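Sample pair:
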Amino acid sequence: MTIDIILKEGIPKDSVFVTGFQGMGITGYIAVRHLIHTLKAKPLGFVTLKRMPPYVWMEDNRLATPIQLFGYQNFVFMLVEFMPPMPDLYTFVDKLCKWASKTFVEAFLIGGLDIRVRKEGESEKAKFAATTKAVDKVLKSGYKILDRGLYITGPLALMLMKFEQLDYPALAVLAYANASRPDPMAAAIAVQYFSEIYGVRVDTDQLIRDAQRIEAEIEESLRRKRERVTEISALYI
């Protein structure tokens, strides 16, 4: 599987790679999207795959693609609107992580953790996972590590696994999220941890205040995308 990372601008030295996916509560996707819009991160480029879904769209007077890269100061955000099918996902993660490990000083990943596993009386709003190279940073900050017996799945798990293999510092915040719907509140919590760790002020008031509207918009947007991909796939059968 061919993967190309197209950059229209250079990446600053000592940059941090940030991404999340449409997993538990769509937390990672909502959080990364909010970071990009709130910080007014500028388009840096995009990622192309050999088997890309054949659609693009216009957004803010520019052409948007399924996997986009945005920059703000020394942060690069990857916004993923479409993930490769499972057979291709492994190659995608492998090549992406190898590129990230050579380009960035650290990776910050965002995901959700099923709120149903939260212990009664627990005060933490999130748990963390980290590679060996980053776990001390998490512990010294006083954050709680994911409990034994709980599992991370999907592309976030594959990225952590690959970064560990590469002996590279990567940490993941897993905000407690509702498993049955998009959860902007969980995304707001993840963004607050990002702000705390990296000292970047990111306003989450609107994300919290407009949670129901954002939830409905995300659900409708994802529904349209799924329908469109299905329609396009049918044309090529």
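The radius of gyration is 17 Å.
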